[in-house]
Design brief:
By secondary structure, this protein is α+β, with helices and mostly antiparallel strands. Helix content is about 25%, strand content about 35%. A six-stranded mixed β-sheet has the order 7-8-9-3-10-11, with helices on both faces. Strand 17 and strand 18 form a beta hairpin. Helix 2 (about 100-110) packs parallel to helix 4 (about 145-160). It starts with 10 loop residues before the first strand and ends with a strand.
């Protein structure tokens, strides 16, 4: 694996971590001031990555650099203890000390960085005020709401004056109503932090709303990274496409169309100059018919059978088996009008302009 160099701006991780039977092998970086969301399913290696940066899971080979310091490099015999790494870590369950007040919880972070008690309490009060929870300074953690506890945990991490901020599923413990408000507040709270920020999540909304850049992990390796828009518009795996609400197919370009690996073919308005491609179609871009449509302008038409129906907000999502199989979003009125149910034979159509084709990178 390539050496990223000793002196870096921000964070650089290059190497292999083992946690039990699980192996994480990757190369990634995060610049100072950059907010990187690490997205992936359970068991993909997201938390292992954070624990490795924090020194809780040692690297087997490779190295970790943070703000010009080598934290972990087995080949050089370098190992910096977790408490000396200047890492601010906000755990998924926040891990506030139940026997300490909110003020003392936050002061603990500053004390760990060598500040005396008086200076630590002053710094703690400062951060509580900046994060809007100074009014809870004398309370114990069990008297806080989920959003308040998150801000206290974030204040404790920031009070330690870290070089990097790591947040592990910071919104997972919140209900849906609270989550949106706290997500917006979290983005504001970390905006002034000058070091790199890594936020782990499996929620695509977190990634799209919070990130400057998204890194996607699956089975211990990076499968895609890019801006939120790139990830949403051009997902590289079926998992990611499903997460983003997109039908994704692998195929190859031949004779002006895409021959799909799983059967069927599609015509697109534009094709890249490569053979191996991915094809993406939004479920809302597909039209459902009970008879074969006759419009000459519709380039993509194929039969299928409805195998599932589920409500999705103000729409209904149909699972349709065919070549290719597809998810189709329609209105409830359309389902009632067409009298569609599980087992019904249907036709699907998609305009060529709604079919997006882009290069695929296998392996």
């Amino acid at each position: 694996m390539a050496d990223l160099g000793v002196v870096v701006t921000g964070l650089a991780v290059s190497g292999r971590f083992a946690y039990g039977d699980f192996v994480l092998d990757l190369q990634m970086s995060a610049a100072a001031g950059e907010l990187v969301v690490v997205l992936g399913p359970n068991g993909s290696g997201k938390t292992t990555l954070l624990r490795g940066i924090a020194g809780l899971v040692p690297i087997e080979h490779g190295r970790i650099d943070l703000s010009g310091r080598v934290l972990d490099a087995p080949a050089q015999g370098t190992w910096v203890e977790p408490e000396r790494r200047r890492v601010g870590y906000v755990f998924q369950e926040y891990r506030l000390f139940p026997h300490l007040s909110v003020l003392d919880n936050v002061a603990f972070g500053a004390r760990c960085n060598g500040l005396g008690r008086r200076a630590a309490l002053s710094a703690a009060g400062d951060w509580l005020d900046r994060l809007g929870v100074a009014g809870f300074a004398d309370r114990r953690p069990d008297a806080l709401s989920g959003g308040q506890a998150q801000r206290v945990a974030l204040a404790r991490a920031l009070a330690s004056r870290p070089d990097v901020l790591l947040l592990d599923e910071p919104l997972a413990a919140l209900d849906a109503t609270t989550r949106a408000d706290v997500r917006a507040a979290l983005k504001d709270h970390v905006a002034d932090f000058h070091g790199p920020v890594l936020i782990v999540t499996h929620d695509p909304v977190d990634a799209l709303v919070l990130a400057h850049r998204v890194v996607v992990l699956q089975e211990g390796r990076i499968v895609q990274q890019g801006s939120p828009l790139e990830i949403a518009r051009r997902p590289a795996t079926a998992y990611l496409a499903g997460l983003m609400g997109l039908n994704l197919y692998a195929g190859r370009v031949a004779d002006g169309r895409v021959i799909l690996d799983g059967g069927g073919n599609l015509v697109a308005a534009a094709l890249p100059g490569v053979e191996l491609v991915h094809v993406g179609i939004r479920p809302s871009a597909l039209t459902l018919h009970t008879q074969r449509p006759e419009q000459a302008s519709t380039r993509n038409v194929w039969p299928g059978r409805v195998t599932g129906i589920q409500p999705l907000g103000d729409r209904i999502r149909l699972e349709v088996d065919g070549a290719p199989a597809a998810l189709v979003d329609v209105t409830a009125a359309a389902v009632a009008d067409l009298r569609v149910d599980v087992g019904a034979s249907v036709w699907l159509s998609a305009k060529a302009t709604e079919v997006e084709v882009y290069p695929r990178h296998d392996g």
